[in-house]
Each structure stands twice: as C-alpha cells, then as structure tokens.
Amino acid sequence: xxxxxxxxxxxxxxxxxxxxxxxxxxxxxxxxxxxxxxxxxxxxxxxxxxxxxxxxxxxxxxxxxxxxxxxxxxxxxxxxxxxxxxxxxxxxxxxxxxxxxxxxxxxxxxxxxxxxxxxxxxxxxxxxxxxxxxxxxxxxxxxxxxxxxxxxxxxxxxxxxxxxxxxxxxxxxxxxxxxxxxxxxxxxxxxxxxxxxxxxxxxxxxxxxxxxxxxxxxxxxxxxxxxx
Length: 228
Hints:
Helix content is 40%, strand content 21%. With 228 residues, the protein is α/β, with parallel strands linked by helices. Strand 6 (132-135) and strand 7 (138-141) form a beta hairpin. It starts with a strand and ends with a strand. The relative contact order is 0.10.
C-alpha cells in the first residue's frame, strides 16, 4: 500500500484530501506545519508528499529544500499546493525539486490524478540510483553515509559528510561561504561564515591525500575538483 504524507495547515483541506486518498487505497499521514512535516517525512518514509507552500514554522519551499538535500528523503516525490499562481513561484518550486504543482482552489479529482501520475513515473521501476560517488581513491557512499580513501574508512560528522557530498555532487562549481551555509546548515541556526572554513579544514585533514579535491579560491569560496 502506497503511503502519502499531506503537509498543510488548513485542516479542512487536509481532511478532504485524506478521505479521498484513503478511498483510493492509499495510507495517509498528515502534518499541519513545517517542522512536524519534516519530522514526519523522515520517520514515515512516504512514497509521496503533498506539500503546501504557505506553512507556519517553516515554509513549504524550505521544507522541500531541506528534504531534497537529505539523502534519506531526496527521492521522495513532492506535489506542491499553493494559493499563489505566479510563474516565479512555480519555477522556484520546480528548481528546488518539486515534481508537480497545483494551485488552490483545486479539484480533488485532479489531485488524485496528479498523485497517481507522479507515483507511476517515480516508482521503483523509474528510479535510477547513484548511491556511490568515486574520484580516484575517494569513495562516497550516499546510502550508507560512508567515506573511504583507498581501503580506509573515514569517520566524518554529519555536517562534514553533508558538506563533502554537496561539493562532490556539484563538482567544479564554485560556492561562496554564504551559499554553503545555506545549503548545509539551512535556516535552522544562525552561524558565522567562518564555520565553513573550520569544517573544510577538518574535512581535508580527515581525508588526507584525498583532501586536495576540495580547493580554495581565494576571496571567492570553495569547489570540488574531480581531477587533481
């Protein structure tokens, strides 16, 4: 049975969606704000998330952003619901990884059809997993959150792994410190840009000879270079 998580602060809408999804044979969980939505997504591991754009606590766009950069939730398809109909909002939603977009008010029949379509094209038969990144002696296992240099297993903190993963997946692209703060630490805490420098330094030390993949562009930021 497919599991669907509905995140929306309008309880009447959530109840209507839940009722109709259950009639179609889906198992449904629900959350009414951003923080609880994130928690439910990680604990419930749904096959699809129906996500409202305007949420208390954390906005739907930020929820989408956080889910899509977390290896545990990045492959969960997301349909965004919103009262906004501007082209910019849709573009931002799709750029953050949303799979579909429905503007309120909407037909429940349309929502069900969209949900079926998204589940069909993102199901197991459609998945193309790339769980391991390799660069010379450096191996990054995304599923197991493990890093090896040669045959040596490297112990990294969660933030160090996230930083390495982000840079490696965006190899050759330069990121300033503010961008890395936003991508890795998100909106949850206010921290200084020097935190990035500290984590990069520790990461290089732990990676040893493979640390040379992480390069500094003085006055600009950092990038991951594949061939060094």
